[in-house]
Design a protein that fits this description.
The chain is α+β, with helices and mostly antiparallel strands. The protein contains four helices and six strands; from the N terminus they run αβββααββαβ. The strands form two sheets. It has a three-stranded mixed β-sheet. Strands 5-4-6 form a three-stranded antiparallel β-sheet. Helix 2 crosses helix 3.
Length: 167
Amino acid sequence: MQQDYKRIPIYLHNQIMACLRTHLMQANQFLHTEYKEPNIIYKPKGSIAGSALLMRWEIQLNSVMLLENGTQFIEEVVPHELAHLIVFKEFGKVKPHGKEWQYVMSKIFDKTPSTTHHFQVKRNTHLYYCQCQQHHLTSIRHNKIQKNNTSYLCRKCGTILKLKNVT
């Protein structure tokens, strides 16, 4: 059921489930429905706090952001993603943060309908250099360079970026 579950302390998982159940109950009462609990999946990477997989009735949560932000993350992200699922069931395929989603967030969940999170995202970067400066490349770009699939040029001096030797 949960990937990366071993990394999530049980008290945080329990808080997530309590938040999910509270908001799901609100939606079911308000809409006179009996929607079941969606599956919760934990993913350990990326800058996306959460995502709703509509057809699978599943919510994916960023385990790193969850661990770093705890209760604030839960109270903001869980209702946000649950609202996407409910909107899909009630209205079908509509704009992701459109009037239907805003309605569920504000009227049913009594939450401010915010489309983006403001949690800090830690990124692993690799130090590269050119003739004029240093560059911090993401792991994705670094891996592409290492596999000889591509190279990147400095926008200022136009030279190819090279990996800084670590001694």
